[in-house]
Amino acid sequence: MILPNQLLALTLALTPSLVVAGMFPKESLVKMLDNKTFKQAMKANQTSIVAFVAPWCGHCQKMVPEYSKAALGLHPLIPAYAVNCHAEKNKPLCAEQGVQGFPTVKLFPRGNSMPPVLHEDGRTASHFYYLATRGIPKAVEKIYRVEHIPGWVSGNKDKHRALLLSKDKNMPMLWKVLGNKFSGTELAFASHRDKKGKSSVAMGLEVGGPKEPKVLLYPAGSDTPIRYSGIHKYDSLSKFFDSVLDGTADLTVALEEAQTEEYVEDPEEAEIARKQEAQRIALMHGGFTDLIDFEKAMLEGGANYHDTAGYGGMMGSIPEHLKKKSDTPAEEATLSSKKPPAKSTKANGITTPMPNTETPAPEVSESVTTGKSRMPATTDPAVRPKDEL
């Protein structure tokens, strides 16, 4: 027999999984937050989007598939969160955020160090994708000519300086995210487009591969760069830059650790990466609904977005010396066969089922002009929806 206190503890333990399963499917990359985890998420200098929703809200239910598609396209560089404002424990947070109708979506450009921006545009996956990617604060200086690099280096000599040499037309989202994260620290970020490798040669470096990025670090007080030769991935680069800023860390050791890190493919992340290619193409031009937007996106960014953003938030391909060495020929054959499928022109993102609608939802007032649902006025326990999603 389960005692009341035990039942309450069991209910609280199961609540997070029930919340996700009730509104967002388990494969969705949208992460649910409560009052405590919201504060933790906002401590990071990170761009994120947050949807404040309620389980009885019809507009929220319609938004779920689109929001989940956007989360897939943004993963892992820009997190997509959701807060259940109907849960009693979250009501103070939603009131603090000025939530008056559902859904309410906000962009948080840099955690709690910058004021949030209310999203008042459409609710398609592309709208959410553009909201997030264009909302990353500009914290990286663009250097257009190679002869201007020495001036930037000497002008910021009192700081550590990280310079990206990239062959892509657009600055990789990963570099923008890193610049935002380390904004306000003793580490300055810049980017230079080295289209054909001529700038690299002028700086005494090799031309490099077609999509190979180069990251150079100029230690504070020095005009001589150190070449980062680790994995060009968010976690790896963040760890390295944290070591640079840590005065107790030996920079030589940090470089050696970065160079010896092996890339081990995570099956779950690999599956997400395989889904992302077509999804990102669709997100960039409104899900194939607007030809003009599509043509503009193609002109501005091209179609192979993994070359820019990388798989799993990575720039370029994995250097051969960093790949995990296989123990047997059979294993090597298996690893070599794990390649992303050919690009598709169909938006085959996550299939997001709608919530169970067998139980009639309570009557709510829905605004035609704002497209938001408001909290039902009744307080009758028999009529009010359950507390969780």
Automatic annotation (TrEMBL):
Signal peptide per UniProt: 1-21
Q: Name one GO molecular function term.
A: protein-disulfide reductase activity
InterPro entries from the xrefs? Thioredoxin-like_sf, Thioredoxin_domain
Region feature (Disordered): 317-389
Q: Which Pfam families match?
A: Thioredoxin
Compositional bias annotation for Low complexity? 333-347
| A biological-process GO annotation | response to endoplasmic reticulum stress
Q: Compositional bias of type Polar residues: which residue ranges?
A: 348-359
Could you tell me the superkingdom of the organism this chain comes from?
Eukaryota
Q: Gene Ontology cellular component?
A: endoplasmic reticulum lumen
Residues folding into a coiled coil are none
Q: Domain Thioredoxin, which positions?
A: 18-148
| Keywords annotated in UniProt | Signal
Q: What is this protein called?
A: Thioredoxin domain-containing protein
List the source organism: Hypholoma sublateritium (strain FD-334 SS-4)
